[in-house]
Amino acid sequence: MANILSQEELDALLKEMKQLREEESKDSDVHLSSPSHSSTPIGSFRDDMANQQNEVNLEVTLNLPIKLTAELGRARLSVFEILQLTQGSMIELDNKAKAPLRLMIKSQRLATGEVVVKEEKFALRVNDVFESVREEITKYDS
């Protein structure tokens, strides 16, 4: 099974990457103000190394496993009601029968879709991806 990062580990990694990018942009501003530096073989080597590091950071970021949850619906039960649950108990969910499932990352809704069966396993066919979540995830790349 793939290792899954906790939210704290993911946040720390994204924060570190953002700081590195800010430092790189400051360094690139210095390089731009000093043209003689970038024309030297050492300056060229540094630029190549920085480009390679950016490619590695992007590859690591794109390969991070993120735990997704497919949510059929929600219910709110008291502790007493939970203790009364037995085999065959029914819990009414807030979703309508034909409502789409929600695909979640933590508590953020990423997409909606419908349940399908693929090779004897349940799967989610994505119908709609929420751009606001995609923008939130990709803002660390800029």
Question: Can you walk through the features of this model?
Answer:
The chain has 142 residues and is of the alpha+beta class. The protein folds into 2 domains: 7-62, no CATH class; 68-141, SpoA-like (Surface presentation of antigens (SPOA), Roll). Helix content is 47%, strand content 20%. It is built from 5 helices and 4 strands; from the N terminus they run αααβαβββα. It has helices spanning 7-33, 35-39, 41-62, 79-83, 131-138; strands at 68-71, 101-105, 108-118, 121-129. A hairpin with a 2-residue loop joins strand 3 (108-118) and strand 4. The protein is elongated. The two termini are 31 Å apart.
What is the CA–CA distance across the termini?
31 Å
Secondary-structure class: alpha+beta
CATH homologous superfamily title of the largest domain? SpoA-like
Radius of gyration: 23 Å
Spatial sequence of strands, sheet with the most strands: 1-2-3-4
Arithmetic mean of pLDDT = 75
User: Can you tell me the CATH architecture of the largest domain?
Assistant: Roll
Main sheet summary: 4 strands, antiparallel
Any idea of the CATH class of the largest domain? Mainly Beta
Strand content: 15-25%
Number of strands: 4
Helix content: 40-55%
Order of helices and strands: HHHEHEEEH
The domain count comes to 2
C-alpha geometry:
elongated
The count of helical stretches stands at 5
